[in-house]
Amino acid sequence: MIALVLLLLASGLLFHAAASLGMIRLPDFFTRLHALSKAETVGTMLTLAAVALWEGASLTSLKVGFVAVFFFLGNPGAAHAVARAALRAGLPPWRAGQEPS
Amino acid sequence: MTATFVGAAVLLLLLGLPYLYRLAAGPTPFDRILGLNGLTSKTTVVLVLLGMVFERLDMFVDIALGYALLSFVSSLAAARYFERLPRA
Prior knowledge:
The complex is a heterodimer.
Chain A: H1 2-25, H2 29-55, H3 59-88
Chain B: H1 2-15, H2 17-25, H3 29-54, H4 57-84
Helix pairs in contact in B: 1-3, 2-3, 3-4
């Protein structure tokens, strides 16, 4: 049990670290969105799954599951809304050879 | 196990620093929305982990849920607002 919780926690932190690294290293807004919407969501869900597993079956762990489901639906939705807003505002995508912004 | 959760929370806060940089440095408003969105989702996880540390997960998970909902709504609102502006 402890091993599974630790594994979930560590893999969640790994995905969070990947998202943070992408925030610094990727060249423009749309590529950074890619790091946030996928790596961040998976990292959050894995970390919350570790907490819910350690808590055991109860109403509280069900609520933790609700938070995870909300992230699964809400984070990509927010990313899509921000990406559409940036496209409609006319933000140009980064091309190879350009200076990273 | 409490020490593990404290360590994970501290590590998550440290991993939030790149988001803080993106929030401060821009360069477009959309990058700032992105930084805020990532920072709030990390804060939600930290709140749940703190609930494990203080043995009051039943209270902290409600706060975390409310915080996540507010962050989602604020991202949507900011995206809709900046959509109408000419590119900054």
